[in-house]
Design brief:
Layout: H1 14-22, H2 26-41, H3 44-89, H4 127-153
Helix pairs in contact: 1-2, 2-3
Region (Disordered): 1-23, 43-82
Biased composition (Low complexity): 43-80
Length: 159
């Protein structure tokens, strides 16, 4: 573009360059200054090189802005997930109450319980065999009373 009669070229200051929309990126300002110098020197090769450098700086600035925007979005998403996790940390999981368990009655025992192995029963059963079954049933029944009592006490079973 040619100058009109009476017009002269004026060099822009760094402040003018920064406020012109290029921004404050030192590489962009340096590229613009190089372009300006080339134009003043009327050196087309230097002007073309400076223009290319300026375009590269502009592309890098756009990429950096995009990366910064993506990082800000990722940080906001992470903050939202952290907020959600914090909110859930204080939330109790509701459980189905299920049927209510009545308090057991009778003797309870919290002694060790041995798994019962049923003996072979004769036909007809002897009194000793029947008594052994009754004793094993009583031992396990007392353990069940203790277990149900404890589960009701800590509300694992609905009282």
């Amino acid at each position: 573009m040619a100058l009109a009669e009476g017009e002269t070229l004026t060099r822009l200051t760094r402040r003018d360059i920064a406020s012109s929309g290029i921004g404050s990126d030192p590489k962009a300002i340096a590229a613009f200054e190089a372009l300006q110098d080339a134009a003043f020197d009327a050196n087309p090769a230097a002007a073309a090189e400076a223009q290319q450098t300026a375009q590269q700086a502009d592309t890098k600035a756009e990429t950096a802005q995009s990366t910064a925007t993506d990082a800000a979005t990722a940080a906001a998403n992470a903050q939202n997930r952290a907020d959600d996790a914090y909110d859930l940390a204080d939330t109790k999981v509701e459980r189905s109450a299920g049927p209510a368990w009545a308090a057991p009655s009778g003797a309870s025992a919290r002694t060790s319980v041995t798994a019962y192995t049923a003996p072979a029963i004769s036909n007809p059963p002897t009194q000793a065999e029947v008594q052994a079954l009754a004793n094993a049933l009583q031992e396990h029944s007392q353990a069940m009373v203790a277990l149900i009592t404890d589960l009701r006490a800590n509300e694992t079973l609905t009282p």
